[in-house]
Amino acid sequence: MDILQPSRPLPALQPARAPWRPAGCDNIALVLQGGGALGAYQAGIYQALYEAGLQPDTVAGVSIGGINAAIIAGNPPERRVEQLRTFWEGITARPVSLFTPDGDFARKATNAWSSLLTTLLGQPGFFTPNKISPWLSPRGTKTATAFYDTTALRETLLRLVDFDLLNRGTVRYAAGAVNVLNGNFAYFDNTRTTILPEHVMASGALPPALPMVQVGTDYYWDGGLVSNTPLQHVLDNAACLHMLVFQVDLFSARGPLPRDMYDVLARQKDIQYSSRTRFVTDYFRAKHDRDLLLKTLLAKIPDDQLNDDERKLKALLANMPEATILELIYQQAAYETQAKDYEFSAASMSEHWNSGYLDMQRTLRHRDWLTVPTGDSGVVVHDIHRVDD
Fold it and tell me: Across the strands, what pairs with 58?
């Protein structure tokens, strides 16, 4: 057997099925967690969705998820996979090795070298090291608060995202960020805000590596500091829509017991950034149950005994939103470490993309999962990695 193996190619784009919508579904939402280099997994997810004819009405993301979401919402359907591929092939273009080593130990060493190159050189079309270290920069200067410059990302976004199309709202777009001064979480939503490259960059401005981004008079950092998933924003704004939600997580809340310090660092990052996906779904379920109880109680009271606010609430609860959430969680390879989110080799990128592509194809085989519940069922969650295929 050869010791060295060539990097796995990205899956060829297949002809897309005609757009369709599952039974009972008013809105298809794609919810993308932050996770740096792991974001290629989300691109593979989208390719499989596109080929299946399932086009999202809503895309929301945090950090790298906000960037992927902007490329999707800022391009017509037939160009989205192409533009995602251009982005991911561009930012992983720097050679690391001509081959992908076979075996966990050799691959872990190659990935460590790749992540070191990222630390020293940045990534093309994404971020570059500041010429002056923040430790040596005068207090209050631009280079004093970050190790890298993201001017290249702005240029990449302008090249790959049609912001006029994004802001026309054909697809609802939202990106999460946190206000540096007050610590409040904010969503930049194209139904309320004219989205600029700065809004997308702010969602992914993870300190201390990347610089805070000014939007208007405020400064923002990566939304993952507060919540690494925009699921709650999507569900809170469902109105009366019955939604099919594809929730794509890049960090797994579940994992093995650490065996050494490398495992500890990796597990810490997984727990920190796996965020509140389960918490949000549990919260939404509990809120739905309370609203259902209130709906039942109000139905027993004649309208002439209700005041105006109570009648408005009764009308609002008459058509409560339902949601089916298909949760896809990236499964870490045995040779990946805590550096997996800043290991930008082309080999790892193609593996992440292919993994997302295959996971979505496996998910879509469960056709019964795609039906949105009716009859005040609330929220139903399916996870491809917790069932037998």
Answer: 29, 172
CB 358 within 8 A of CB 131: no
Query: Which amino acid makes up residue 332?
Result: Q
| 3-state SS, residue 60 | strand
Instruction: Render pLDDT for 276-307 as a digit per residue (tens, 0 to 9).
Output: 677 777 888 888 888 888 888 988 998 888 89
For the stretch 113-158, pLDDT in tens is 999 999 999 999 999 999 999 999 999 998 999 999 999 999 999 9
* CA 252 centroid distance within chain: 13
CA 194, 85, 270, 234 dihedral sign is positive
Q: What distance in Å separates the CA atoms of residue 289 and residue 241, rounded to the nearest whole number?
A: 17
Bridge partners, 349 (sequence order): none
The distance of Cα 116 from the centroid of its chain, to the nearest Å, equals 25
CB–CB of 284/378 below 8 Å?
yes
Positions of E strands within the chain: 4-5, 27-32, 58-62, 100-101, 128-129, 148-149, 172-179, 185-189, 213-215, 218-222, 243-249, 323-329, 379-383
pLDDT tens digits for 217-271? 999 999 999 988 899 899 888 877 889 999 999 998 888 899 989 889 999 999 8
Cα(42)–Cα(148) distance, integer angstroms: 25
Tokens encoding 199: 């809004």
**Two tokens, residue 193:** 């805000």
Q: Are 194 and 167 in contact (CB under 8 A)?
A: yes
